[in-house]
Amino acid sequence: MRFKSWALTLCYGLAGILVLVAVWSVLAATHPGTARFPSLLFIAETIDENLWNSAAIAYASFGTGGIVSNVLSTAVNVLIAVAVGLVVGYAVGIALVRSRRLANLSSLSIALLGTLPVLVLHPFLTLWFGVSQIAMGGMVVFYTILTIIEAVRSSTARAQDRWGDYSASLGLSGPGFITSVLVPASLPATLGTARAAVAFGWGFQALAEVLGGASGAGRLVRTFADATNTAGVIGVLICLGIVALITDAVIAALGKWAVRWNE
């Protein structure tokens, strides 16, 4: 039954891709030239030409590398930023549940931070950290922290209300209660939120790189866009999407294994 559902989902996904390919092919055929709607064959040739080394980067910024190195750089930075945000957000979420005074003190601040558009952080990060990896990944870290705090706080609060008194009656409190009750209770929601944070992180990271990154897929998109190389821009996005899909599949598989007891 699960295999049938998975196969059906895959078929629908492939059908959607074929529709997109057909629409793009029609646009490319009705709009000659490569500036607006380059053909799929030309996009494939551009990817192959810039896969390992890009002449556009060497010309525009005396840089090295191609699509592979820059996309992998973005992927590594996204995963590091989400990992940092996950650790910080999880610790803060647990602390807010365990300390009512801390929760009351920080609730308004967290609510206000949650209303801020993530993009407005980029100018401040650039002023404070220049074009370093901290500035490029800052938006991903910020978004991950806020979403993880909310996921952990809601799931652990329910667990504490439901099993707190019962665990205390059995002599389980303090660190033992956190590791034995709160961590397992919050794990499914935390992993799901972390997966979503990675999905959003690709966009935040690439956008930061477009606005001022020294490396990464976003920098390559900006370089190709400045050269009016539409095929190059699309090629980078295709490669980034493939890496994102593979990463999401790996995270989903690891998450399913980690909470296999919850099935």
TrEMBL record:
PROSITE patterns xref list: ABC_TM1
| ABC transmembrane type-1 domain segment(s) | 71-255
Q: Look up keyword Disulfide bond and say if it applies.
A: no
What the entry lists under InterPro entries is as follows: MetI-like, MetI-like_sf
Keyword line: Cell membrane, Membrane, Transmembrane, Transmembrane helix, Transport
- Keyword DNA repair present in the record's keywords: the answer is no
Domain of life here?
Bacteria
How does the UniProt record describe the way this protein sits in the membrane? Multi-pass membrane protein
SUPFAM superfamilies the record matches: MetI-like
Give the subcellular location.
Answer: Cell membrane
Q: Where are the transmembrane segments?
A: 78-97, 102-121, 127-149, 170-187, 199-221, 233-254
A Gene Ontology term for the protein's cellular component: plasma membrane
Q: Which GO terms describe its biological process?
A: transmembrane transport
One Pfam family it belongs to: BPD_transp_1
Q: Which family does it belong to?
A: Belongs to the binding-protein-dependent transport system permease family.
Q: What is this protein called?
A: Binding-protein-dependent transport system inner membrane component
